[in-house]
Amino acid sequence: MEGRLAGAVGIGLIAAFAILGRRWFLRRMDADLNARDAGDPDAVRRLRRLHWGGMLCNAIELVAIVGSIPYIVVAPA
User: Fold this and answer.
1) Is residue 28 within 8 Å of 49, Cβ to Cβ?
2) Per residue in 19-36, pLDDT tens?
3) Is 39 exposed, middle or buried (0-12, 13-18, 19+ CB in 10 A)?
């Protein structure tokens, strides 16, 4: 039971990180898109870095979720 509770808390933390990270990500993306449209030459580089950072966060979250499946799902005996 304790292992499943820890797994559920871990999944909850990953979900909270994803929700809060999405809000931050969208604000940054909007700001960089506006800067790009205003003619900022560095905005494209920041957008590219933001894109790769978002992809890395998604990959880490995916690995954490898939890696935790054996600890949460109990196989029938």
Assistant:
1) no
2) 998 999 999 999 999 999
3) exposed
- The pair of structure tokens assigned to 73 is 């799902």
What are the structure tokens assigned to 38, written together?
Answer: 């205003």
Q: What is the value of pTM for the model shown?
A: 0.73
Contact 26/47 with Cβ under 8 angstroms? no
Tokens of 70: 């054996």
CB 42 within 8 A of CB 24: no
C-alpha pair distances (Å), 22 with each of 13, 25, 37, 43, 58: 14, 5, 22, 19, 11
Q: How many CA atoms lie within 13 A of 63 on its CB side?
A: 6
* Total residue count of the chain as it appears in this document: 77
**N-term to C-term CA, the chain:** 16
